[in-house]
Every structure is written in structure tokens, then in C-alpha cells.
Write a structure and sequence with these properties.
This protein is mainly β. It has no helices and 12 strands. The chain has strands at 14-16, 21-27, 30-36, 39-41, 45-46, 49-54, 57-59, 65-66, 88-91, 99-100, 103-104, 112-116. The strands form 6 sheets. A two-stranded antiparallel ribbon has the order 1-4. Strand 6 (49-54) and strand 7 (57-59) form a beta hairpin.
């Protein structure tokens, strides 16, 4: 088993749908549900940890949101389950023991929801009383 790699604000990092993002799509005179594969790249993220860097890029935490999803552009009637259209992704769970600026770090493979209607709530940061590691 490999160790998960932490995410950062970088266009090479992304989150993708593992099941279809079903959106209402115009067909003829009506709207029909059609499944799309959706992806959100991390070069457009908002609410990153600005004081911690990964390979010179801002750290990605559970409070961070990719602001643009692509792959479902024909689905102009928005999502069937969640009414998003070319909008945010929300990370559902991050690391249980690694925190940046009080928020859980996000790693490769952490679960997310894609194509949300907006950035969602600001996650509650962990207590500032956490013990840090001094660098030698």
C-alpha cells in the first residue's frame, strides 16, 4: 500500500467522478437526464492554506474548493441530485492526523462531491491548541 500524497493548488492535481454526474440535458424540446464524467483541476481552487507550501504551491485542505468542474457542459439543466453546473467540488474527508492552519490535509484518494452549486460552508478548523513539530 502506498502512502497518500497531499494535494496542492496545481493544475496537475485534480478530483474526478467515479460514477456519472447526472445532469438534465436538452434533447429535442425537453430535458433528459444524461450521465457525464466530471473532473475539477486544482489550479482554480479557493480557500487554500496560504502559510504552508507543497512544492511551492499552496496547501489543499478540507476547507479548499476547486471552483470549476468540467465534462458536463451539455447538461445546462444542472445536476439531478445536486443542482450544480460547472461549479465547485467539495472534499468530504481529509487526513485524520495531519492538519494545516487547523484544517485536515487533503490527500490523493480522499472522497469528494463534484459539481456543487457553490463553495459550501466554511469548515470548522481544529483547535489552535494542537501541538506542532519544531524543525531542527
Amino acid at each position: 500500500m502506498t502512502v497518500p500524497v497531499s494535494a496542492r493548488k496545481d493544475g496537475a492535481n485534480f478530483v474526478y467522478s467515479i460514477s456519472p454526474d447526472v445532469c438534465l440535458t436538452p434533447v429535442g424540446s425537453g430535458m433528459v437526464p444524461v450521465g457525464y464524467n466530471t473532473i475539477a483541476f486544482f489550479d482554480t481552487v479557493v480557500r487554500t492554506a496560504t502559510t504552508v507550501r507543497n512544492n511551492s504551491n499552496e496547501d489543499f485542505v478540507v476547507n479548499t474548493r476547486p471552483s470549476v468542474c468540467i465534462g458536463h457542459e451539455p447538461g445546462t439543466g444542472k445536476g439531478v441530485k445536486i443542482a450544480g453546473y460547472k461549479s465547485h467540488a467539495v472534499i468530504k474527508q481529509g487526513a485524520s492526523a495531519v492538519f494545516t492552519e487547523g484544517w485536515a490535509a487533503v490527500r490523493d484518494g480522499d472522497p469528494a462531491e463534484i459539481n456543487r452549486p457553490g463553495p459550501g460552508r466554511v469548515e470548522t478548523p481544529r483547535s489552535k491548541s494542537s501541538v506542532g513539530i519544531d524543525h531542527v
